[in-house]
Amino acid sequence: MNDQAQRQQALDTSRSFIVQAPAGSGKTELLTQRYLKLLSVGASPESVIVMTFTKKAVSELTTRVIESLKSAQGNRPNEPHKQITYDLAKVLKKFKAFDWQLLNTPERLKISTIDGLSSLITSRYPSKNQLVPKQVIAQNWARNDIYLQAAKQTLLAIDESEYQNSIESVLLYLDNNVNKFYRLITDMLAKRDQWLLKLYQHGVLNIETLQLSSERVIIQHLLLLKNEADCYFDATFFELLKDNTKPELMKIQGVPDATIESLEAWKSLCQLCLTTQGKWRTSLNKNNGFPTELKTQKQSIIKIFQDLSSQQQLKELLAGVEQLPDVDFSTNQINVLQDIAQVLKLAVAQLNILFDVNQTHDFIQVALDADQALDEHQVSDIALFLDNKVQHILIDEFQDTSTTQFALLEKLLTSWQIGDGKTLFLVGDPMQSIYLFRQSQVGLFLQVRARGIANIKPEFLQLSTNFRSSKSVVEGNNKIFSKIFPQHEDAYKGAIKYEYSQANSVDEDENAINFYPFAHKRYDFEAQKVLEIIQNNPTREIVILVRNRSHLGDIVPVLKCANIEFEALKTTPLREDLFTRDLLSLTRALKHLGDKLAWLAILRAPWCGLLLEDLLVLSQQDGRVIFDLIQDKQTLQNLSKDGQSRMRNFVHAVRDIINQKSRFSFMRVLEFAINQLAPQNSLSVKQSMIKTQFLQIIHDCESAQQLDIGTINQMLDELYAPSVDARIKLMTIHEAKGLEFELVVILGLGRVPQNNKLPIIHLQEFSNRSLLLAPIRLYTQLDDSRTYTYLKHVESQQNKFETMRLLYVAMTRAKYEIHLLGTLNQSNQASSNTFLKLLAPIFQHQFDKLTLSTIEDNQLPIRAPELVRYVKPLEYGNLLDESMEEMDFQLGIDLQYKSLLDTLLYQYYENGLFSPDKQSIRVRLVEYGVGNMDIDTYIDFIVNMLNLTKQDKHFSWLFKQRTSTQVEAEFISDKRSIIIDRLFIDEDILWIIDFKTTRQANDESIAQFIQRQKAKYTQQLLSYKVVLSACYSMEIKCVLYCPAVQELIEIA
């Protein structure tokens, strides 16, 4: 194995390491070996701390250590990496002198989460006003609820003079939208660990912190750019700029420095090199400072740009200069930020009051309190802090560290020194960092790898051997992800280079990775293909992975219909299970005897099973409580014989429970009732698990004195129905992380993930501790601030890179086979931000096989109701006579169809479909309600217009793929909203394109037609130009495009 030397080094307990271990390389096994080695050389269990990020991971790691110790009593395994673990555990067993009794006292193993370490710190050093330990709020709904309470209390302070102006100012900024105000508060409280300790100085907003952060971000970008520019822009290039007519370019005599003072020079250089779409310029003119007489210089510079066309990193860094945040804040920006900061400070105070009243706190508060405790008590040495015993720290999944957790660890390591016998061991895989939504910063891994942490500089080890997957899977993944992952790393944006793996096995399978594209969002075809894969692999353990739970909606009914058992991990909400609904109805009925609907529901439930006719008898007794009715002999005689029998059994089961329910807790009463109505031996395994979950919810609600149906429903919303173990498993990619399966199916590659709402305040904490914060634009403003725009761009980049890593995690779960399934969108292309978009260039040959005939075959017949009309319409051509002043009712109907046809034509333009088959057009028209009488005429019209468009000499220019292109672009001015058919930037000119299907009138020349269109639409297009001139600082041109006459008509 190529990395055997690195694995051996990692077991040197005298040195600190940071280990990068790709999927399947046995990183947790290596960490376990390091842990056992530390124990085997005499380190006591209390002197070694192992930390990870979830309770589940803690449990798994503890189990692995215990099982390793137990396995030492058995035979030596065959796998080389497991043999090392066995040998270490075997050696450890010989040290009976230590008498640790670890198998009998596993609590001596100090394995915990980082949050657990924070809790330990706060328990050792509680705040002065904390008399009793507080309970951590674990449920999302409970945290969100208390955040909302704090937000409401904050708004109520509007009458207090100290806060009135700030609250009113923020409300006005949010257009007096109270819900937005609440969302601002709750969103910021949920991530207050990122800003609370940095944003304020002596209780007020520290604007310098934000300005310094902006400067650090800018300088970091310029440093990367300068390093690239030094390689490609030499003295010859700058000599060519000497005669340029633009003063700002004439001043640049060499590559500018990476300083704030040089930012304007960088912007000038960027504008010279790139178009506004971020592409290398292919021509220069007087607007760029190169008049006609500088022809020689122009040609030389264009030649340089042509030579640089392959330098993607340089181009992206140059383009990024225009996206950098504000250097300085305007007075208005400072005022708004100060008011928001004042409101947020009040919201935090309100939240702390609620925490004290309820004797609770959240994980963020635990971390903040731990940080404060370390500062107040000046406890910087973790060894002193934890009984002066800790000598070694091991952290698993280090790539998932947040800046808050990193800061805590850094403080605890402050007094550690190289050579003092203490070691730090960090292991993780940056390529598997997929928890951005939890504020994990993969850039921290890169930072420690390069510069260390505190005074510790761990040695870097790179593993490469994959023990999980076959050689074909490993090599296939290498081929795919070496093309998908970025070529350069960027800690700010989370860009991680791909590291190749090497298979430990030698078997090969040509069909290890299979790709199946489908056209026109045919998710039903995907599901059928999955069923075929399952049926073709009757013995293998198969997992079906999706990006979001909602993406399983098409496969579940297919599997059920085929009677295939499956285990769906966290896919079916608990409240949707029928047994859960019965338990909820029983809860409502027991809490309120007058809840008629709940009582009817439990009488209908399987444990009683009344027929509908019997329920009708009971429901018609409006004035009486159902519980009293079912005990009334006269009422029971009106039921069927079956109903009477069932009712007697039911009443016998619940009467005593209800009559004595005041003697017990509600949880006990409910448990008695369930046991009476549904004895344990009558429940399935799944129902038994649901019963346990539901009773735990009731217990938690009762303990928190929140036993109401609303709270119970909120708790149910966060839970999922359990499922029984099966060969076929369904889960999200996040839930599959750390697991392995013989065959992996990744479904829904073409599905677009849900877009998050734009935050009211965009906040980003970077791996170098820089904090950028910017509010959304004022409702009357057209543009966001540069900082807000920059943060949106960074978030977009971070999400793009995490999408790559998420696909990597999914595909590296497989041992032997991977099956990839995805559907194209209506344009027969892969949608942006999807896995399919990443894979499209790699599997392009299979995309090309999706011909029009395939698309037509994939279309299911759509039957829509035909529109019934009594009068035969006029011919479509008659509608084009726009001189008619009077229109009858029938003509009004046909004008509606003209609008419909125009809309359909523009959709084909928008999606780049210029050769749709007639059948697909027919389907679309039927969907719109067009009847058989007219449909062929309308199909011919669409086909004719598209053919004319394709044959037009302007076609290539008009429908060229540009990054700046927008279709159906909506803009809002002070007076109205406008929608522009097509908008793009070409050679620094913004083009407004308006499509018109108007034809020439009889005996009308082309010149007359053009004049008529100008007369009719000039005012409209010029009004568009006015609106867009407020958004774009460039030349704007307006054009009418009339495909019927193949003319572009410029409006000036």
Please, could you describe this protein's structure?
48% of the residues lie in helices and 11% in strands. The protein has 1052 residues and is of the alpha/beta class. The protein folds into 7 domains: 4-119 and 367-467, Rossmann fold; 138-190 and 330-361, no CATH class; 209-321, no CATH class; 513-571 and 726-848, Rossmann fold, CATH 3.40.50; 574-717, PCRA, domain 4; 861-945, no CATH class; 958-1051, Lambda Exonuclease, Chain A, CATH 3.90.320.10. The protein has a 6-stranded parallel β-sheet, with helices on both faces. Strands 13-20-17-14-16-15 form a 6-stranded parallel β-sheet. The model is unreliable at 851-893 (pLDDT under 50).
Task: Give the SSE layout.
Elements: H1 4-10, E1 17-20, H2 27-40, E2 48-52, H3 55-71, H4 80-94, E3 111-113, H5 114-124, E4 135-136, H6 140-156, H7 161-173, H8 178-189, H9 196-199, E5 200-201, E6 204-205, H10 207-232, H11 235-240, H12 247-250, H13 263-273, H14 295-307, H15 312-321, H16 331-358, E7 360-361, H17 363-376, H18 382-385, E8 392-395, H19 403-412, E9 423-428, H20 443-451, E10 459-462, E11 465-466, H21 471-484, E12 502-503, E13 513-518, H22 523-536, E14 542-546, H23 555-561, E15 566-568, H24 578-591, H25 596-604, H26 612-619, H27 626-629, H28 633-636, H29 641-659, H30 666-677, H31 685-703, H32 709-717, E16 728-732, H33 733-736, E17 741-746, E18 761-765, E19 771-775, H34 786-811, E20 814-823, H35 835-839, H36 844-848, H37 852-857, H38 889-911, H39 918-927, H40 932-951, H41 955-958, E21 966-972, E22 977-986, E23 989-995, H42 1006-1029, E24 1035-1042, E25 1047-1051
Parallel strand pairs: 1-9, 1-10, 2-3, 2-8, 4-7, 8-9, 11-12, 13-20, 14-16, 14-17, 15-16, 17-20, 23-24
Antiparallel strand pairs: 5-6, 18-19, 21-22, 22-23, 24-25
